Amino acid sequence: MIFNLQNNKWLHESVINYLSPICVNSNHWVFLFISLEKNSEKFIFIDPRGNLELDIECYFNNWKNFCKIRSDISSSYDCIQLEHAFQSDEVNCGVCVCLFASFLLDQRDDLHQFIDNETLKNFRAKIVVAQQNISSLEKVNKSDESSSEYTENEVDSDEDAENNEVNLLTSLMSDNVWENRSCSLLLMGQYRCDSPKVDISKQNEVNCNQHGHVEVACYPVQNITCQGRIYDGKTIGFYKLLKCRYVTHYSYQTTVLFSIFLGIFGFDRFYLGYYSIGILKACTFGFLLIGYLVDMILIITQNLEPADGSKYIVDYYGQILHPMKILHNLVTKRFLQRKFTNVKLKYEIDQKLLSSCYILVQIDGLNFKTFTKINNFIKPNDQSNINLMNSCSMKIFETLRDHLIYSYGFSDEFSFVFEPKTKLYDRRYNLYASLISSKFTSYYCLDWPEFFNEKMVLYPNFRSKIFLLPTKDDLISFFEARQLECHQNYLYNKSFWSLILNKNISKNEARKELIGKSISDLNELLFKQFGINYNNEPEVYRKGTFQYKDKKTKEICEVYISLKKNSLIWQVAL
């Protein structure tokens, strides 16, 4: 049964519709909307991200197979793909599913309109209130079963519940809850904190309290919003407590000297504040030397500390000892290490790449079509994105310049080549695959503001593949194939978008017009219909970006040239 948030009516009493939310990979919500009305059977699949095109056919076939075994359900369904807006972040897929469902139930035709955060916030508030309505209805039904009359207290409680719903809706509809969150709830990386000041004379943090904590100022990074304001990275947002050593005036050196030379008379205990024990030691000559020896060992090993709970002042060359903790940690660490080693050897896949082979790690964008659409990229090629991709590649090259020798990329793809003799990470497959994709994604997100004026709406995902190439000829052949792919893709995309933008036709019509055309046909189409000479297009679009280390200078260079076997670049590159 489906509950309609608009009129609080159970749908199965009026219209025969089925709505089935589906959780994909346990982390993303999509849904099916199926109309069972005769002569208007429809099967609608909507994904808020718009990137599960292959799953539509799978779900549709499953539904048709289900209909065949049911005599009361027609099997003649039309699979409809509606144009709809995409979610603008990575977390509100569930709310978008509910919003699209509401639009379909109300037979609205504005699914394609952009869904902003304000719309999601308002609809989330409606969901919360609807849930409270359901719970309040259940309470009323239970009370009707037990008694048919309301008392004054019950009427008051109903009014309070209604007021609570109004207050809840008001709070959710007011200023953004997330903007009003406390800055102390920010995640690591969204703020930076000052380092505690150190008292050189005592070798400890200034203003460290008796509980072993010191307060430092923390600054939300630029453009982070909390506590109702946008921070610039220089304004204090909150104060954080860090652990520290609470020190007063007790010197470790002085205490040791007292214990060795005057400990038999209790001077060490007097100095540390244990006056009663000090008097007893003085009267008994250090408990007949036994207490003298015990205290000396405890003080030297720093197990006997000042009576006020503070720590010793230890000179910069002194050693702060925790012998019992060290022993415990060593035993625990060795046990856990031995236990983990057994598990690791049994379950971990530790595949190593063959030696003396070129290691080529290729990364490419995952669901990049959706990413470019939501972030409003310019078609067919966005120069800002190309510059950002090249910058990310260059930074990775600089970071791993002792191991990388080439990189090549175009569109949303980049390939990085490690020299055959590299021993980086002991040539472990998993580390090479994760290293490049994680670094590239991090640089892409961090450097985005330098190349784009608009804020990133949807964050990118890059996946990685690894190829082992035995010889340099194999490597050059690989680059030739990728450069040919770059050339063909740009030529097709240039023709495709020229038809759409200049002739004002739909995407389907443009695809039909380009079906079966060869490379020469596409060149002729561009020149005759739009006056575009493909050979005059920027080389970075037609040939991609090649980065290499120069043989002589060892500097990293960037060029946009042909990568065929007879190219001069292979004589200059390392």
From TrEMBL:
Acidic residues bias: start-end ranges = 151-161
State its cofactor. Mg(2+)
Q: What class of enzyme is it?
A: transferase
Q: What is the protein's membrane topology class?
A: Multi-pass membrane protein
Q: What is its main location?
A: membrane
Which key words are in the record?
GTP-binding, Hydrolase, Magnesium, Membrane, Metal-binding, Nucleotide-binding, Nucleotidyltransferase, Protease, Transferase, Transmembrane, Transmembrane helix, tRNA processing
Positions of the Ubiquitin-like protease family profile domain: 1-104
Q: Where is the signal peptide?
A: none
Keyword match Nucleotidyltransferase: yes
Its GO biological process annotations read: proteolysis; tRNA modification
* Positions of transmembrane segments: 250-267, 273-294
The GO terms this record gives for MF are: cysteine-type peptidase activity; GTP binding; magnesium ion binding; tRNA guanylyltransferase activity
Q: Can you cite an annotated GO cellular component? A: membrane
Q: Where is this region: Disordered?
A: 140-161
Family affiliation: Belongs to the tRNA(His) guanylyltransferase family. Belongs to the peptidase C48 family.
Instruction: Indicate what this protein is called per its UniProt record.
Output: Probable tRNA(His) guanylyltransferase
Which organism was this protein described from? Brachionus calyciflorus
